[in-house]
Amino acid sequence: MLRDRLLKLFEEYDQDVRQVIADILALEQEHISMERPRVKEQIKQIIKQVVKNEA
Amino acid sequence: MKLERITIENFRQYYGRQRLAFSRDHQRNVTVIHGVNGAGKTSLFLAINWCLYGEGVSSVGELISKEAASRAQDGETVSTSVELAFLHNDERYLVSRRLTGTKQSDSSVLVNSGEDFTMMRTSQDGQAKRVNNPIGAMNAILPSNVRTYFLFDGEKIDNFAKPEAGDEVRYAIYNVLKLEVLTRGRKHLQDVAAEYRRELKSISTGELRDLIEQEEKARADKESALAQKENLVREIESVRRKTADIDHRLSEMQNASALQQQRERIERELAQRQSEMRQLVSDIRETATSGFTIVAWTAIERALTVLDEKREKGEIPSSIRQQFLQDLIDRMECICGRSFEPDGPEHRRLLELMHNTVPGSLEDDVLATNASLRALDEQRQSLRSDLDKGMRRRVELRERMKALDEELDDVSRQLEGSPQEEISKLEMQRRDFQADIDSYLLQQGSLDSRIETLTKDISQLEKQIERAKKDKNKQRLLARKAALAQRSADAIDEMYQAFADDMRRRIEAKTGEIFKQLIWKSSHFQNIRLGPDYNLQVIDRYDRPARPELSAGERQVLSLSFVTAMSRISEGKAPLVMDTPFGRLSSYHRSSITEHLPELTEQLVLFVTDEELRDQARENLEPRIGAEYRLHFNRETSCTTILKGNDNDRD
Fold it and tell me: Among A44, A55, B5, B594, which has the minimal tally of Cβ within 10 Å of its Cβ?
């Protein structure tokens, strides 16, 4: 699928960056029909979770 | 996404509940729905769009079947619904959208606000669950902003191929190939990273290291002061021992013994007085700090004066309460037993007093305040007396201690002036030792003060360091978050252009490949070019852009090639649902499209007129048709029925 192809592009990056990008792209896709989606808090939650898992 | 079936109920001219199953066969992947103009092809096409997205309908009131509405009573609820079942990523979905309204007396339907949109998902293990966010789920399956590239109106399909369609092509690529998702993700990550940095800046002062250095220095200073103090204490002890030794020797010398004993007696009394003085100073301090009434006395005195003035004016009768006056008036008799006349001087005076008294509760409060203030006065006088007594005793003690000091000096002078040289020498040594002790005690006091200050400073610094450490942890966490958000945004930025260029080139190549399969002048048109400006160009054999001179049919073929290419490149496995796709095409293009299109898509649904699909086109498609329906419009009822098969005679 295109999503897999897209994520494959980032395989040279660190695991934390790959995880953030995968989650963000899924989030943005879910809100793609909105002109100005309010996703800031959800993005912060994704970052927080990845940083927490990393620690 | 692969369509399984659609069930419609009272939707436009489709009265009642009707169902249509799409072909899902891999080889026979085409579903053909025939209908003459006005039979209901576009309504059925609209039903699919409305069910999935609830969009594209200018007036929802038109959706509810007029036949259903006409059969309803005034005030009765009428409704329409569309259910669509489809497969996606090995899971089965059932989405449903329902609209209700109320039949009005003028036969119109007043539509209720809001549509009921639900989605159920059945996983491979057979577990069915309601999807909580059906819009989000649809965006992940086939977003509404790309639906028009998969569910499209054949009459508008040539839009992409028009010379002015650069923006539309760019928009289509952005959305179908997830470039828009990447762009938004990058922007939102950058925004969040910037917000983290602002937050970090607001709490970051870089003071922790300074505070630790300050604390280390304060601790070193305190250690040094404590060591100096310890040396001093040892010196003082040493000098005191030497003084005691001299005292001992003097007490054993015949000519010094009496004076030495006198000195010891004076020193004992002096120590006693000094102890008494310390206690007295402590008591005076305590009395003074608790004597707030002395400070507040001016205000208290003023309050008492005001109350006294009021009482003298008769506004607040002292000890005469309202009830007592009322009793006298009621009895018309004085407390001595003498009666008085109504309206007589005694009666008038009592009435006057009654008039001047304040209401009972206020009178009580005033009297209570007066009593409290007078108690404070007594407390003030007692405090003042204690303070005066203490101060007098302090003066007495100071005088006595001064006298004792003078007596000690006198004893010392006598011993120093002794004709016996040893006595004189010992006393001079003693004086030097005393001077040393005084000097050492002075230094010790200074060191104590410094140690006390340093101890307070260290305690304060410890608290500040603790706070700074907490901030530091927060800073570290924020810095990590900011860095991760920024690195992720940068990663998208770095990969974006490569991905976009790769996608553009793939679409360019695929569009060219499909276009050449479908177009009959394949030798005239050499290539398709999709530049960085997303301008879709057909290049002719002279290597010149040929789009301005394309016929309407050729533009339609170009658009179809582009849409099909996007579908292939996106790997989204979405069906192609086309409403009257071949209307403007010549027989050659119809033939080539029907020959190749089923191979280029997972599932193809065609809404066609009989004119669109005949002869060679029909023959080409025949082996790929898995399901076929005819929309039968009943002239008597103005309703359409979905009939299986393609029997022309039934029209």
Answer: A55
- Which residue of chain A has the CA closest to B139? A30
Single-letter amino acid code for the residue at B512: G
Q: What is the pTM of this model?
A: 0.60
Helix pair A15-30, B179-203: axis angle to 10 deg: 120
| Tokens linked to B19 | 């169902």
Q: Tell me how far apart the 2 most distant CA atoms of chain A are, in Å.
A: 36
Q: How many CA atoms lie within 13 A of B622 on its CB side?
A: 7
Distance of CA B575 to the CA centre of its chain: 42
Query: How many Cβ atoms from other residues are within 10 Å of residue B565's Cβ?
Result: 23
Whether the predicted pLDDT of B113 surpasses 80: no
* Partner B contacted by A52 (CB < 8 A): no
Portion 25-44 of A in contact with B at CB < 8 A? 25-33, 37, 39-40, 43-44
- Closest to B561 measured CA to CA, from B585, B533, B544, B543: B585
Q: Residue A7: phi, psi to the nearest 5?
A: -70, -30
The two structure tokens encoding residue B107:
């036969």
Does B476 touch chain A if contact means CB atoms closer than 8 Å?
no
Please compute the mean of the pLDDT values over residues B185-199 and round it to a whole number: 92
Q: What is the mean pLDDT of residues B175-197?
A: 90
Dihedral of CA atoms B9, B13, B14, B16 in degrees, nearest 10, equals: 60
For B144-158, write each residue's pLDDT tens digit: 777 777 887 777 777
Buried b / exposed e across B360-382, counting CB within 10 Å, b at 16+? eeebeebeeebeebeebeeebee
pLDDT value at residue B651: 47
pLDDT at position A42: 96
- How far apart are the C-alpha atoms of A52 and A31, rounded to whole Å? 25
Of B185, B480, B491, the CB nearest to A51: B480
User: Which has more pLDDT, B419 or B354?
Assistant: B419
Q: Could you tell me the pLDDT band of residue B68, with boundaries at 50, 70 and 90?
A: very high
pLDDT at B83 over 70: yes
Type of residue numbered B265: R
Q: What are phi and psi of B626, to 5 degrees?
A: -105, -25
Percent of chain B surpassing pLDDT 90: 42
B 118-147 → A contacts, CB under 8 A: 133, 135-140, 143-145
If phi over 0 gives left and psi between -120 and 50 gives alpha, with beta otherwise, what is residue B107?
A: left
Separation CA B136–CA B628 (nearest Å): 33
The answer to whether the Cβ–Cβ distance between A20 and B488 falls below 8 Å is yes
Among A12-26, B44-58, B187-201, B453-467, the minimum mean pLDDT is found in B44-58
User: DSSP for B523-574?
Assistant: TTEEEEEE-TT--EEEEETTSSB-GGG--HHHHHHHHHHHHHHHHHHHT--P
Please give the single-letter amino acid code of residue B191. Answer: D
Q: Please check the confidence at residue B317 and state whether its pLDDT lies above 70.
A: no
Region for residue B398 given its phi and psi (left: phi exceeds 0; alpha: psi -120 to 50; beta: otherwise)? alpha
B526 burial (CB, 10 Å; 0-12 / 13-18 / 19+) is middle
3-state secondary structure of B354: helix
Query: Minimal CA–CA distance to A47: which of A28, A26, A21, A25?
Result: A21
Q: Which of residues 165-194 of B touch A (CB under 8 A)?
A: 175, 177-178, 180-182, 184-185, 188-189, 191-192
